[in-house]
Amino acid sequence: MKRMIKCFSLLLAVVAVFTMIPVTQTAALTFECDVEQYSDSLLMVNLDTDMEVFAKEADTKRYPAALTKVMTYIVAAEYFDDFDTEIPIKQSCIEAVVNGGMNCSGVDWYVNESLKVTDLLYALMLPVGHDAAMVFADYIGQGNLNTFVDMMNQKAEALGCTGTHFTNPFGNHDENHYTTARDLYKITRHAMGLPMFSKICATSTYYVKEDDDVPFITTNWLIDAARGGDYYYVYATGVKNGSTQEAGRCLIANAVYDGYAYMCICLHAPYDESKEENEQYCMVEAANMFRWAFLNLSFVTPVTKDTPVCEQKVDHAWDTDSILLVPQTDFNVILPQEYSEGDVRIVPDNTDPVSAPITKGDIVTTATVYYKDEAFTQINLVANESVGVSPILYTTDAIRGVLTSPWFLIAVGLVVILFIVYVSVSSSYAKKRKHDKSRKK
Fold first, then answer.
1. 175 in a structural domain
2. What's the Cα-to-Cα distance from 364 to each of 245, 294, 360, rounded to whole Å?
3. DSSP state of 109
4. Is the pLDDT of residue 234 over 80?
5. 252, 216 Cβ separation under 8 angstroms
6. Is 9 part of any domain?
């Protein structure tokens, strides 16, 4: 019996521990948006909160074209401890680019010389960058392109990308070379934490040497005031664009305005490489999405850490049978400026009674946050006061729990059955002995 009570108490403790673990889940929350859309996949994320504000087919696999080079940048940047490291520009790398039907972007001008890692990163991210990608892959992969590609795929997996697979560091079309808008967000978000990435991606013109006649020039017209024309968007800060016939036009773009920062990822917008001029649909789309977000969305605090959300019943407490639960922290979120308080609801995920003792600030349960009946995140709810335990109530409930537990009832049933069997066997044995004595007489 002692062992049974001990096991039952241990089970209760384990359950209690797991109910105290904070849980956070975030889902896409797509606000109404009247921007004309060209891309088949589109994702808009607030960079201050990592909150999605618009998503369309964000998990559909797409060909990424030159957006691949964000991962190429990651592998290269994490490989070198010193960005002043000199890398030789081999003729064989340039020939491999040309023979593969790709264009060189200026690295070929430095054949038989060396460029610093920093120079090659600019060459990778500003122009098309096939030659820079080849130099990095050859150097880091020690002459084996597949070794570098394996590193790209390993990094994608480590970042939690479930819809991504690379076959090359350039973005050349391959049926097995694909990603998703959400995976590209994870990849680019990681890249933004690496040295030089944000600075490089916000640069429109870069000279390797002061006396160079031709610089590396960005193909992202959103950030190029000199060459971008009507596509130039003053608040844009990077990142990369690309296109192939199969991938269509693709873009990862960042923009910052009035303390708000967003990333917009556009995949598979219209593109026909047989035409000399094609409208940069992704750039038009991204700029309009940024304008929509900056003008219509803002930070709000629907509830603070002092706002009561609900009452929770408490067992075994001295002088109360319930406590108030409040958010663990102030709940800040991006919402449309015209939202009303009734649009946001916070619903506790578990309303079962909890047991004292409880300390103020203890996580009691989680709650799902809804915007217009659409669940989009979870928050922790904590006790707003401490509650002491009543030993008498606790002991009484523990005894009642043991006495009414299935295991106890099964044990009692087994004891009853064994007793009945014992009585039956004993009775049969007594009758047999009596019968044997009678026969002897």
1. yes
2. 54, 37, 10
3. G
4. yes
5. no
6. no
Note the pLDDT of residue 121. Answer: 98
Of 66, 30, 25, nearest to 45 by C-alpha is: 30
Rounded CA gap, 70 and 135, in Å? 15
CA-CA distance, 61 to 35, in Å (whole number)?
23
Same-domain check for residues 252 and 180 = yes
Query: What letter represents residue 184's amino acid?
Result: L
Closest CA to 250 of 234, 275, 267: 267
The residue range of the domain holding 434 is 405-440
20-29, 151-160, 163-172, 244-253: range with lowest mean pLDDT: 20-29
Give SS3 for 23.
coil
The neighbouring-strand residues paired with 214 are none
Angle between helices 130-140 and 69-79 (to 10 degrees): 40
Per residue in 354-367, pLDDT tens? Answer: 887 889 999 999 99
The token pair that represents 38 in the structure block: 């060209």
CA distances from 273 to 34, 128, 360 (A): 29, 15, 64
Shared domain for 309 and 284, answered yes or no, is no
Cβ 309 vs Cβ 367: under 8 Å: yes
Same domain (yes/no): 433, 336 = no
pLDDT at residue 395 in the model: 57
CA dist 102 and 98 (Å) reads 5
My answer on whether 228 and 93 are in the same domain is: yes
Cα distance between residue 55 and residue 181, in whole Å: 9
Q: Which residues have CB under 8 Å from 39's CB, separation 6+?
A: 56, 248, 249, 266, 267, 268, 269, 281, 282, 285
- Cα gap 88→149, rounded to integer Å: 20
Residue type, 145: L
Give the Cα separation of 277 and 282 in Å (integer): 14
Q: Which tokens sit at 179?
A: 């990603």
At 409, which helix (H) or strand (E)? Answer: helix 406-440
Chosen domain end from 237, 256, 290: 290
Instruction: Say if residue 440 is exposed, middle or buried (CB neighbours under 10 Å; 0-12, 13-18, 19+).
Output: exposed
Q: Residue 16: which pLDDT band, with cuts at 50, 70 and 90? A: very low
**How many whole angstroms separate alpha carbon 409 and alpha carbon 58?**
53
